[in-house]
Amino acid sequence: MSDTDIGLWAVPIAVIGGAIRVSTPFLFVSLGECITEKSGRINLGLEGTLVLGAISGYALSYHAGSAWVGLLGAAFAGSLFGALHGWICKFPRVNDIAIGIALMMLGTGIAFFFGKAYIQPVAPRLPAIPLGSWSDIPQLEAALQVNVLFVIGIVLAIALYWAFRNTRLGLIVRMTGDSADAARAMGYDVNRVRLLSTTVGGAFAGIGGAYLSLYYPGSWNEGLSSGQGLMAVALVIFARWNPIACFGAALLFGAAGALGPALQSVGVSQGYYLFYAAPYVLTLIIMVLTVSPGQTLAGAPGELSITK
Amino acid sequence: MANGVVGAKLPSDRNLIAFVPLPSLERFAETAAISLGAIAVSAILFGIFILAIGKSPIELYSLMYTGGFGTWFSWQNTLQRAAPLLLTALCVAIPARLGLVVIGGEGALVLGGVAAAAIVIPFQGAPVVIAMGLMAMAGMIVGGLWIGFVGVLRHYRGINETISSLLLTYIAIALMNHLVEGPLRDPASLNKPSTAAVGDAYMIGSLPGMDVHWGLAVGVVCCILTWVLMERTTFGFAARITGGNIRAARLQGLPVGQLVLVLTALAGAFAGLAGMIEVVAVHGRANASLIAGYGYAGILVSFLARHNPLAIIPVAILLGGITASGGLIQRRMDLPDATVLVLQGVLFVVILLSETLYGRWNFARLFGGGER
Known about the structure:
Distance between the termini of chain A: 52 Å
Number of strands of chain B: 0
Helix content of chain A: 55-70%
Strand content of chain B: under 5%
Number of helices of chain A: 13
Largest interface: A-B, 49 and 45 residues
Structural class of chain A: mainly alpha
Order of helices and strands of chain A: HHHHEHEHHHHHHHH
Oligomer: heterodimer
Number of helices of chain B: 15
Shape of chain A: globular
Strand content of chain A: under 5%
Distance between the termini of chain B: 37 Å
């Protein structure tokens, strides 16, 4: 592939490039989950939403001939699934975590059901911005191929951070998440706030899924998602419900995910499969280090069942 | 905090009042009516889905009946698939009694299978009973440690058990791939990396009179034993109190931590046993075939059975039948194999939604049992 030999430098460069490529779905799902959790609910079903977004994005992109239409479709499909979660959870005695698991199954099932027909066809992909064109090292140039969604994600993270602090809407969502009673006393419909937050969260997860099928890896198959939707939930806890920290955490998870393929590219094949486990092990370690029993986490929404 | 011996000092039944709003017969009627209603509603919803894509739901359901329960042959197929579901459902049902949602049975099953296949390699030639015992022990210990670790994380670090158990499943699968591709690989297994075969002598046979392996009997016995443990012993009583109200349990001096650790380990042991049985009854060696989704289907079985170990038996058979009919539906109706997954998803969502109906109707009056 290369005409310049850069030796072991290929590993860190591949990891950085991989971090940028792999982190985008993490970023979108975690921002979506962040909004949902801020309103006081947890949606574990985002894993299913992600897969559903991936197939609907891919299918629409294929039929409409435009990746952007696919992206919109994925966001729409994701928001429908989010709304389903939000609607079901308003009933008393319904467990939001269990519903998440059920929607994970349902979303994956529906995606695989309709996905069979789209394994072969090639759909238009999302464009990339060649930020590395100044460099004459092909590996670096490849690593700095940045997708537009990555940039949009950064902007969204900053915007969300600002909105949670400075806007009325952000305050309402945060209040609902911290104390449903307070929100009720202020005259807001708690269930509606949570329904909308979960819907928006689902749309974000759908976009994250469309990134998987429309950019990297850039095709549809049944093994497309490997728990990104679920890891994003843990990632939000690690990021302490702070959208900007979500971005950093997403990069970290992306780097962990890129480690295996990067090492393989320089010929390290020992324990190759173990490196696949790196993001999951990292998630567990981070949770062990950051969660502690008997005390509430700083920044945790008070109504969240997962931290109780 | 709680240092009491298990079951040593249990409170009178005043704590239980909260869990038993209805006498048991009426409670059973309520559960049965709501569960069957939920199954009917999901069948209708899924039928609409099938209709919407231009196929006949009536044909689908009749094929599902034929493929799952229509003939003796399909019954055997169904029971064969129900066997691992019994054990993986227990992996969900047992922690659920403590109020924990553990969904990592798939990982424990996979690693239990690998452990069972690996331990017998140096013991080729040992008497069958000893080899069987070793394999079952290995599967159960590895599975128990795996899910027990979820309990450790939950109890000592306060980590959400749902997330940690699912993460551990991904780790387990990576570990399995590493082991069967590397240290444990049988060089003869070319295109599907596997451990060495356990050998024909150590394969378990069929139940008398049918073509269903002994794993079914093991699963049924485990369900019954778990029911006795949870419903008829002080230990299970303590677990149920903890699940109902952890603060009350602590105040009463129940060993909450021990309960969490022991029961998660027990749950994992059952899933590990399921892996061992899959190896010695179906695959003959450990490889990627172990990742068959039994762990995930077990979650659905357990929720459908409302985490009651006895109810798991019929529900596992029902789900086994649905899975068994998948192939027939695929061939006859030209539907993708994910059809069964969609049905399972719909069923799961509706079942959870039906939780909201409990306690809404006065079943006591419906059945002439007087006022509540």
